[in-house]
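Quick review question:
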């Protein structure tokens, strides 16, 4: 089973200048983002580094532009997928973690 959810459209509520500034402040070593989902969400282009490319991508998404936004607005699930035997009963306690690229600062988009 692979969870999916449609990406947010550019200029969707929840990703704002606050996210842009938080990502920029991390890149400038002013206020580092904590390890985990917030830092992963700031890495909009998925290159394992938070830099000006990510800042600009989040900003362009917030402004409603549809190009140059990398993965901003897209969901990433953890685990990415899960295999099951033939299911005949409900599967309980099968939670997936999710983040939205670009959604760096709480409150997070639902």
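Suggested answer, residue by residue:
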């Amino acid at each position: 089973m692979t969870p999916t959810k449609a990406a947010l459209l550019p200029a969707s509520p929840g990703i704002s200048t606050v996210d842009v500034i938080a990502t920029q402040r991390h890149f400038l070593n002013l206020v580092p983002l904590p390890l985990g989902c917030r830092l992963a969400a700031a890495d909009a282009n998925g290159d394992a580094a938070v830099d000006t490319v990510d800042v600009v991508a989040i900003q362009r998404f917030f402004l409603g532009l549809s190009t140059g936004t990398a993965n901003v607005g897209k969901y990433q699930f953890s685990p990415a997928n899960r295999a099951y035997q033939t299911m005949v009963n409900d599967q309980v306690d099968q939670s997936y973690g999710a983040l939205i690229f670009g959604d760096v600062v709480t409150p997070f988009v639902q």
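Why it works: The CA atoms of residues 14 and 109 lie 5 Å apart. The longest helix spans residues 17-27.
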